[in-house]
Amino acid sequence: KDAAAMVGTLAEVADRIVATRSSHPRAVPADDLAAVARALGRPAEAVPAPAEALEQARRAAGPDGLVVVAGSLYLLADLRARLAVGGGYAPGRLARARKGIDPPEAK
Fold first, then answer.
1. Residue 95: DSSP 8-state
2. Fewer CB near the last or first residue (10 Å), C or N of the chain?
3. Measured between alpha carbons, how far is 20 from 31 in angstroms, rounded to an integer?
């Protein structure tokens, strides 16, 4: 995957980037991702642990801000429980996507 291109796309719309890495052994290091964002003129920081990165992004965004988690399904898997709790849902109550069927909250 072209991580630099992905960071470039996010840098076009993000005010700030908090970079992290998933638990996948081939994941790009957070420092490398943050360096790409900074080279593109975006404020960026590297937080190697995904859970800590999510909390840092939430603090930086504030109560009215938006946090986007992007990169890979491995990162989403690493953060699934924390994303559910932060969104007001208990982890076991997140709607599971099924092919061709939108979850109830998408309607």
1. P
2. C
3. 8
pTM value > 0.85: no
Instruction: Report DSSP state, residue 13.
Output: T
| 40 vs 58: CA distance, rounded Å | 22
101 φ, ψ to 5°? -130, 125
Distance between first and last Cα of the chain: 32
Amino acid at 46: A
Question: pLDDT tens digit string along 56-106?
Answer: 999 999 988 888 899 888 998 899 888 766 555 444 455 555 555 555 554
Helices (H), 30-70: 30-39, 50-61
